[in-house]
Amino acid sequence: MTEQEVKDILVKTHAIMDGHFLLTSGLHSPHYVEKFNVLQHPAYTQQLCEAMAEKFKDSQIDTVVGPMTGGILLAHEVGKALGTRAIFTERVDGHMTFRRGFSLEKGERVLIVEDIVTTGGSIKEVIEVVRESGGIPVAVSMLVDRSGGKASFGDVPSTALLHMQVETYSPGDCPLCRQGVPMTKRGRTGK
Fold this sequence. Notes:
- By secondary structure, this protein is an alpha/beta fold.
- The protein has a single domain (about 5-180), classed as Rossmann fold.
- The protein is built from six helices and eight strands; from the N terminus they run H-E-E-H-H-E-H-E-E-E-H-E-E-H.
- The chain has helices at about 5-10, 35-40, 40-55, 70-80, 120-130, 175-180, and strands at about 15-20, 30-35, 65, 85-90, 95-100, 110-115, 135-145, 160-165.
- It has a six-stranded mixed beta sheet with strand order 5-4-3-6-7-8, with helices on both faces.
- Helix 5 (about 120-130) links the parallel strand 6 (about 110-115) and strand 7.
- Helix 3 (about 40-55) packs across helix 4 (about 70-80).
- The model has no long low-confidence stretch (mean pLDDT about 90).
């Protein structure tokens, strides 16, 4: 699957949005990627996850791990495509961990998947959990890398179906604010 084909799916499902967005970081941006706009479509999710899995079909992956929430869906579909187990991490009291009886065997080869990566912080936490559990993080596979190439995971290689350079502005330097463009509401929560 080419990056353009991935982008076309994300645009068709309105996952790539244009407007004036307030990001969780407090920065403003004219673009936003709402992963659940594409993940709500099982056929597209399966197609994207099969493309993610294809790159690792010969890597002897034992388990696919993704962080809650979007990573759960990706881990399940990538695991299905690879014929492996799929589990997820979640935050408990601010720390990433395995729960719900999930664990790894010593030496278990793990592919870590994530939906949208900006800084890579969550993935770094998942890598740490995998290592602490005895697993071997083989690689990281991302649906969208919007870090501009800045997200790095040390000795764990990474790949993405789509690379995006997303402009961000501090509120005081935002050209959209200066133009009087109202904030765009993102999804139901309006985060």
